[in-house]
Amino acid sequence: MVDTLQFTVIQKDVFEQLKLGKDALEEINNQMKIQDVEKLLEDTSEAIAYQEEVSQMLQNSLTDQDEDQVIKEFEELEALAIAKDALRLPSVPTTDKIGHGIKVASSTSKVGKIQEQRRQQPEKEEEEEEEEEEEEKDKQPVAVLA
């Protein structure tokens, strides 16, 4: 008889717990409408199908020729970016702190040639100005005192 009473108490506890579980499930189901769940599942499956289609297109879209062309275009863009960055570099100093000319090692690259041309431009102009000044001095009459 004691066993029967204990078993009945356990059955009552199980019944109450099942009832609480049912109430909690109803509460959750009231917050989630069937239409919302169906829409969510439909949207998710559409997104997955779209992603699979895009992946398939990307896998089959490039031939060897296309890939070579893409690589060539990428290298050209890289070279262009490097050239633009190189043109933004500061010019190499041509004099030391005292003002004496210094020799700068030139590079064989395009950047080095451009910098060398930029460096030589002011030097040529200075040399031409100095030559013109000397010519003007030579032309000035010299007064002889007797």
From TrEMBL:
The keyword Transport applies. Residues 93-146 are annotated as: Disordered. InterPro entries: Snf7_fam. Residues 124-136 have a biased composition (Acidic residues). The keyword GTP-binding does not apply. GO terms for cellular component: ESCRT III complex; multivesicular body. Residues 113-123 have a biased composition (Basic and acidic residues). It is found in: Endosome membrane. One of its GO terms (biological process) is protein transport. Keywords: Endosome, Membrane, Protein transport, Transport. Belongs to the SNF7 family. This is Charged multivesicular body protein 6. It comes from Mycoemilia scoparia. The lineage of its organism: Eukaryota, Fungi, Fungi incertae sedis, Zoopagomycota, Kickxellomycotina.
